Amino acid sequence: MNHFYNILRYAKPYKSYAFGHIISNVFYALFGTLSFIALIPMLDILFEKKDEVTQITKPDYTGIADLKDYYKDFLAYHVNQYAENDPQKALLLVVGLIISLFLLKNIFGYLANYFMVFLRNGVVRDLRNAVYTKTVELPLSYFSEQKKGDIMARVTNDVATLQYSMLPVLELIAREPLMIIFTLIGMVILSAKLTIFVFIFIPISGIIISRIGKSLKRKSDRVQNEQGVILSTLEETLTGLRIIKGFNAEQKFDDKFRESSNRFYYFSNKLLNRQNLASPTSEFLGILVISILLWYGGQLVLVDGSLDGSSFIAFMGLAYNIMVPAKAISRGLYNIKQGNAAAERIQEIIDTPNPLRDKPNAVEKTDFNSEIEFKNISFKYQDDYVLKNFSLTIPKGKTVALVGQSGSGKSTIANLITRFYHVNKGEILIDGININDITTSSLRKQLGIVTQDAILFNDTIKNNLKLGNENATDEAVIEALKVANAWEFVKELPDGIDTNIGDAGNKLSGGQKQRLSIARAVLKSPPIMILDEATSALDTESERLVQVALENMMKNRTSIVIAHRLSTIQNADEIVVLNKGEIVEQGKHNTLIEKKGVYQKLVEMQSFE
């Protein structure tokens, strides 16, 4: 239930709709109860003996203890006044009264549902938005330990589960309890003895029903977890389809997917069969209670004489009427148990602490003036440090290249300066300010990033480039494409910069995608550029074109170049050679060659290749 209350917090912005829903339900429950009580005078008219002469006078109210008799006599008096001893006219009046009450009941029922639509859908929208926002905010380290498919399942399937299981309970919170309260009041007025008798059996029914629902949360949790596995397998299959086909691994992945699908089938069957058991069980128990009421109520009418026939029939209608909301509440409790597992999975993401959240007094960095300084930084992803006491100063306007074997810590530098991760020891300073004291947004405005994998989105070329500069004009976009050596192929496309490049840019070659990612960084026009092995995945011709684009982009900018191909960084102002997270050599290309150390060996190895 705690997770249900957490979900209810998202209903606060919709208090006005909740208020309208509650008011409508008050009248819905009131007219629903009165519509059954209004049957009493009609039944009296139908079953009264015609030869019975009764002088009907206007009744006097003598207190709540005689409320039932006062109500009956009051209705009988006014019906008699209107009908003037004409039973057909009286019957027509009572039928009209019943129709009016049911009409009012349904009008207010519609209004209650009308207000609930905005409340319920608003909560779903805000919840989905909150999960997505938190997903985007969380650091990359969180996703390295999670399956993407499982996160997708939480944002989609789990939110949908809440929408159709837990959130409909919001409709029951006001309506069904009010319906029960008003119905009970009507039942007590008609017969206190019979109402007490009902209360003996309802708790017994409730205990039986609750026992059925105890394992629903656990079974639902298994179903939702398996949905995450299915989505993860599907996502991995679509991402790696080329490799799967190339290694003839279709059968292996097909078996993996089928195993997960079969588990989902098995868990879903158990969950749904347990749910299906709830409705017939509660209905049978309801009929059982009604049957016992018929027997006991019949005794009160035929033997005891303390209850008249018309009141007893109306009481039975009310008793059945109370079973409908009671069943709805029991079904709602089942749904809460089922939705609780989904709510727990969603809340797990929302409640995940973000270690990279800005400090309360973080400053806005609007420009870059002097230098970047890495000051004795050490960092580890898990157990072993990948950077150890790393220190480096990069003056404004200079290009520094980081080289070394794979795993030497080059890309980690890019991850740390962009605050994708926090350093474990030491600090990174920009213009003398620790980047942890700068707002993440303003820090990243100073940075342009070009990665080894050209990450593009299923949109037009223009919209992909404007990712970091929404206000850029078409002329500025074209100018950025020219700097990135990409305008030559873009202008030949059917729609130019308005051409859609497909999912992940799959309509373009690797070199074309990389030049677009460079153009995107150029259009953003930041003072600091970070190039993370931007040419390592390209063929020789594409590398030449991209290298020209990179050189154009780095003019008059401070650049950190993480290089795999050493031929691309020979003109850097300084080359830093890393080995196992430590600086082993540092200097210009020619100086490092003359040292005949680690850098020269790296150059020779690539020359041999």
Automatic annotation (TrEMBL):
<dbReference type="InterPro" id="IPR027417">
    <property type="entry name" value="P-loop_NTPase"/>
</dbReference>
<feature type="transmembrane region" description="Helical">
    <location>
        <begin position="178"/>
        <end position="209"/>
    </location>
</feature>
<dbReference type="InterPro" id="IPR003593">
    <property type="entry name" value="AAA+_ATPase"/>
</dbReference>
<feature type="domain" description="ABC transporter">
    <location>
        <begin position="372"/>
        <end position="605"/>
    </location>
</feature>
<feature type="domain" description="ABC transmembrane type-1">
    <location>
        <begin position="22"/>
        <end position="338"/>
    </location>
</feature>
<keyword id="KW-0812">Transmembrane</keyword>
<feature type="transmembrane region" description="Helical">
    <location>
        <begin position="309"/>
        <end position="329"/>
    </location>
</feature>
<dbReference type="InterPro" id="IPR036640">
    <property type="entry name" value="ABC1_TM_sf"/>
</dbReference>
<dbReference type="InterPro" id="IPR003439">
    <property type="entry name" value="ABC_transporter-like_ATP-bd"/>
</dbReference>
<feature type="transmembrane region" description="Helical">
    <location>
        <begin position="90"/>
        <end position="112"/>
    </location>
</feature>
<keyword id="KW-0472">Membrane</keyword>
<keyword id="KW-0067">ATP-binding</keyword>
<dbReference type="InterPro" id="IPR039421">
    <property type="entry name" value="Type_1_exporter"/>
</dbReference>
<dbReference type="Pfam" id="PF00005">
    <property type="entry name" value="ABC_tran"/>
</dbReference>
<dbReference type="Pfam" id="PF00664">
    <property type="entry name" value="ABC_membrane"/>
</dbReference>
<feature type="transmembrane region" description="Helical">
    <location>
        <begin position="18"/>
        <end position="40"/>
    </location>
</feature>
<dbReference type="InterPro" id="IPR011527">
    <property type="entry name" value="ABC1_TM_dom"/>
</dbReference>
<protein>
    <submittedName>
        <fullName>ABC transporter ATP-binding protein</fullName>
    </submittedName>
</protein>
<dbReference type="InterPro" id="IPR017871">
    <property type="entry name" value="ABC_transporter-like_CS"/>
</dbReference>
<feature type="transmembrane region" description="Helical">
    <location>
        <begin position="284"/>
        <end position="303"/>
    </location>
</feature>
<keyword id="KW-1133">Transmembrane helix</keyword>
<dbReference type="GO" id="GO:0005524">
    <property type="term" value="F:ATP binding"/>
</dbReference>
<keyword id="KW-0547">Nucleotide-binding</keyword>
